[in-house]
Amino acid sequence: MTIPGAWRRAADGAGLLGADGAVRPTIFAEMSALAVSTGAINLGQGFPDEDGPTEVLNAAVAAIRDGENQYPPGRGIPDLRLAVAEHQRRFYGLEVDPDTEVLITAGATEAIAATLLALLEPGDEVVTFEPYYDEYGAVIALAGGVHRTVPLDPPAFLPDLARLRETVSDRTRVILVNTPHNPTGTVLDRETLSTIVELAERHDAIIVTDSVYEHLTFGPEHIPIEMLPGARERTVAISSGGKTFNTTGWKVGWLTAPPELVTAVLAVKQYLTYVNGAPFQPAIAAGLRLPNTYFAAIGRALAHKRDVLSEGLRAAGFDVYPSAGTYFVVADAAPLGFADAADLCRRLPELAGVVAVPLGAFSRGEYAARTASLVRFAFCKRIEVLEEAAARLAALPH
Ligand code: PMP
Ligand code: GLN
């Protein structure tokens, strides 16, 4: 039987199912499974190997024991919405109304899916940078949208603003921004963000911004695009507790937006998950209320990890690009004689006992061909794990 459906449009026309009818796993699932089956060190999928703050973990345990185990309200529990509003005020000076301008979601993943499904009509264009987080391409296609990209090229991985201006048009319904940027580690600067706002205003597009790494920067400050003049009224700003509190498996995310945009997204979200994570919601609220010292310390600790892994990759013979934020660093395997990063990543467990992800998983066509030897490594691991990975990679022939 031929299975009909929107799945055919996604994964850039190849479909979300393979020729054998099985699910085509995301690159993260594929590489994590490879790490498990080979016992290799997993620097592929971005998840920490240590628990986050005890206060946050204890709050979840307490909430389960206190009976917070039934459906929370559709918008999320009031105290978490308040904690999100307090966080936006404390870090960015933004005033958001917790009752009408905040929505709690099943991770940033659901926030992105619900937002795009709510805002796109078939044929509408969405502009993102390339490489891009794989979910963007899949959901744009499921919604019947058309995905246009602006390249972030090595070595700086910064956009060409003239190219951005050419790509955004009256057909653009959404400009989807991700900063700090997965997979390149780029933190977008004010000039780029201002250009995006200017183009969104000119072409009456909505800005959707994915800031899940907002606290994980190593020097440049994260600038929420919704802080820029003219942006607030047309921006859906998305984030998540997973990266900030080392709780990627909890899937508690949120978005802030003007009331009418929140309502449109909620109308879709209520039929996706309806709600999720009842006992985790108060725990993430506790996390969002941790002192400034906590938020400053996680960036510092991660910067050190980035340095340890980047140094190890350089010593192993890779060209390593700078990373100013996120969990990730991009390295070029060409100097080691590997032109095809996808092939290298499949063989890396056997060659070196390490798993990584090819940049091609975040791109397509001409960009993917141009960057075929680039690999993304995750450094959100304990120092001794990173040192062991570096030692193993140093054994690669070069
Ligand atoms: N956006 C980006 C850029 C990501 O890297 C991730 C994955 N960690 C997500 C969204 C998904 O976040 P969540 O786990 O909260 O759904
Ligand atoms: N965001 C994580 C990464 O980029 C993975 C999330 C996932 O597995 N979907 O590695």
Bound molecules: 4'-deoxy-4'-aminopyridoxal-5'-phosphate, glutamine
CATH class descriptor of the largest domain: Alpha Beta
- The value of Rg in angstroms is 20 Å
- As residue ranges, the low-confidence spans are none
Distance between the termini: 50 Å
Q: Report the mean per-residue pLDDT as an integer.
A: 96
Secondary-structure element string: HEHHEHEHEEHEHEEEHHHEEHEEHEH
Number of domains: 2
Query: How would the global form be characterised?
Result: globular
Outline of this structure?
This protein has 398 residues and is α/β, with parallel strands linked by helices. The protein has helices at 27-38, 54-65, 78-92, 107-119, 134-142, 161-167, 190-203, 259-269, 280-288, 292-315, 341-352, 365-370, 383-394; strands at 41-42, 102-105, 125-130, 146-153, 158-159, 172-178, 206-210, 235-240, 253-256, 319-320, 328-332, 354-355, 357-358, 374-378. It contains 13 helices and 14 strands.
Question: Would you write up a description of this structure?
Answer:
There is one protein chain. The strands form three sheets. Strands 2-9-8-7-6-3-4-5 form an eight-stranded mixed sheet, with helices on both faces. A four-stranded antiparallel sheet has the order 10-11-14-13. A two-stranded parallel sheet has the order 1-12. The radius of gyration is 20 Å and the shape is globular. The protein has two domains: 148 residues, Aspartate Aminotransferase, domain 1, CATH 3.90.1150; 235 residues, Type I PLP-dependent aspartate aminotransferase-like (Major domain) (Aspartate Aminotransferase, domain 2). The protein has 13 helices and 14 strands. Helices cover 39% and strands 15% of the residues. The longest helix has 24 residues. A hairpin with a 4-residue loop joins strand 4 and strand 5. The site of glutamine has 5 residues, from loops.
